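In response to the reviewer comment on reproducibility (Comment 2.3), we provide here a single inverse folding case reported in full, input and output, so that an independent group could reproduce the run without further information from us. The structure tokens appear first.
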């Protein structure tokens, strides 16, 4: 049951706010003395009232706002900034990267989706419906990220090298109706031509050409999305090419890959419609010893060719972090695409949570004022839990991390750093962890008309009962 504060309760909350305006620091001390953990404040009449403990979301936000203001942080502008950041949410969480080509269902390419939770989407309309249900629980305006295997071909087998914008018109119409931008990916896996683990860097020119044609077709499809929706589509190339064991020749496949990529990007497309990105990787299942498209390969490629560089948080050594790379690579490339993922021991693509690394990534984006140069994409897939919930948990986690970063007292931290006050810097960073972030986040959810943290799962459960659980 949700209790609303009565008039007299809100009156009682008032003096606390007024005190905060007088002197935020002494107010904090007084609060600390007045309220012991687990012990509510005494009401003026004496005795404890449950309503003393329960502040409405608005009151909680007002108090939180004062606390942040005491550190020089403006919550309202943080929320304003957050609402302008779109996430590119990946379609493949909804159906375990199966797509609708009707192949064997094997993902391949070193990707592994584990789990058998019921209710995966089996058709474009189910996937759209499930995503809409997730979207209604994610605050803000976002984008949808498709792969080529999600083409709608009316049961006809269309070669991947022959895909056309018309095979995605269902997606495009839906995106237009829902006011969603679309992003896109050629699919270089789950296909007989990729069965030996090589695509664009294959030694067979015929196979290479097939994949070049596929990628070219995808760029045109991306451009058709951008044109139709009035927002450029980011088309991201990731290939699985690599060797399980020690290669005898690392050089030649990389030289072939440069040539193939140059052929892919040779057709000029309007950047208002399509933007190209390339994604690197350290290793995959079955490509443990050598990946053609490594980080150094693509950093050089993106810098010299002017494409966007994509960094996937799961694509590096477990102790190597993307957060530390952002400010380096943005010196050499214009734009970055992030694939936000959570690797556990390996590139396991676990659902994103507000982990230390996620917070560091978000802080880097905000501190560096990089938001206009960085596209935030999500890339995880978990078939062991409710898939709609997976989308919601991951997307909300990304937004929470961004909000935490936006609520950082960055000027104060920088000043301390410049003054050599590393003790103060460390103490303030730690202090931020106990600030009333939850109240600000809840307020944001309320503002954007989506359920708060404690409430969204009920809606997913209801959807499961009536829809996904019946599949
Ligand atoms: C694979 C890459 C790639 C894929 C998607 C499905 O390791 O991360 O981005 O996850 O294209
Ligand atoms: Zn990725």
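Designed residues, in position order:
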């Amino acid at each position: 049951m949700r209790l609303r504060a009565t008039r007299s309760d809100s009156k009682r909350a008032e003096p606390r706010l007024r005190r905060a305006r007088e002197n935020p620091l002494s107010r904090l001390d007084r609060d600390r003395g007045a309220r012991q953990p687990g012990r509510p404040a005494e009401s003026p009449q004496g005795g404890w009232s449950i309503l003393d403990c329960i502040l409405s979301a608005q009151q909680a936000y007002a108090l939180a706002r004062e606390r942040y203001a005491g550190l020089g942080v403006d919550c309202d502008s943080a929320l304003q900034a957050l609402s302008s950041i779109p996430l590119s949410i990946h379609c493949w969480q909804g159906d375990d990267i199966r797509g609708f080509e009707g192949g064997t269902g094997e993902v391949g390419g070193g990707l592994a989706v584990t789990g058998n939770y019921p209710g995966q989407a089996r058709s474009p309309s189910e996937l759209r419906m499930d995503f809409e249900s997730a979207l209604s629980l994610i605050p803000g305006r976002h984008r949808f990220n498709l792969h080529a295997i999600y083409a709608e071909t009316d049961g006809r087998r269309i070669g991947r090298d022959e895909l056309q914008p018309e095979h995605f018109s269902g997606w495009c119409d839906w995106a237009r109706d829902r006011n969603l931008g679309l992003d896109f990916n050629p699919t270089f896996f789950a296909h007989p031509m990729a069965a030996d683990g090589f695509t664009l860097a294959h030694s067979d020119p015929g196979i290479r050409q097939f994949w070049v044609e596929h990628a070219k077709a995808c760029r045109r499809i991306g451009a058709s999305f951008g044109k139709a929706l009035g927002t450029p589509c980011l088309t991201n190339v990731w290939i699985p090419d690599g060797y399980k064991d020690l290669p005898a020749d690392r050089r030649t496949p990389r030289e072939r890959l440069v040539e193939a990529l140059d052929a892919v990007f040779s057709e000029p497309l309007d950047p208002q419609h399509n933007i190209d990105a390339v994604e690197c990787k350290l290793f995959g299942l079955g490509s443990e010893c050598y990946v053609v498209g490594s980080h150094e390969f693509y950093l050089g490629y993106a810098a010299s060719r002017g494409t966007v560089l994509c960094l996937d948080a799961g694509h590096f050594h477990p102790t190597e972090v993307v957060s530390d790379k952002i400010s380096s690579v943005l010196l050499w490339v214009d734009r970055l695409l992030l694939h936000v993922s959570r690797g556990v021991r390996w590139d396991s693509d676990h659902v994103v949570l507000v982990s230390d690394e996620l917070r560091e990534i978000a802080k880097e984006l905000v501190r560096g004022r990089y938001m206009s140069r960085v596209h935030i994409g999500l890339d995880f897939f978990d078939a062991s839990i409710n898939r709609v919930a997976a989308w919601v948990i991951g997307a909300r986690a990304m937004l929470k991390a961004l909000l935490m970063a936006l609520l950082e007292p960055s000027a104060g931290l920088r000043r301390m750093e410049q003054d050599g006050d590393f003790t103060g810097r460390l103490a303030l960073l730690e202090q931020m962890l106990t600030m009333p972030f939850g109240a600000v986040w809840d307020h944001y959810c309320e503002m954007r008309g989506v359920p708060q943290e404690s409430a969204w799962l009920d809606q997913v459960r209801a959807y499961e009962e009536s829809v996904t659980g019946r599949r």
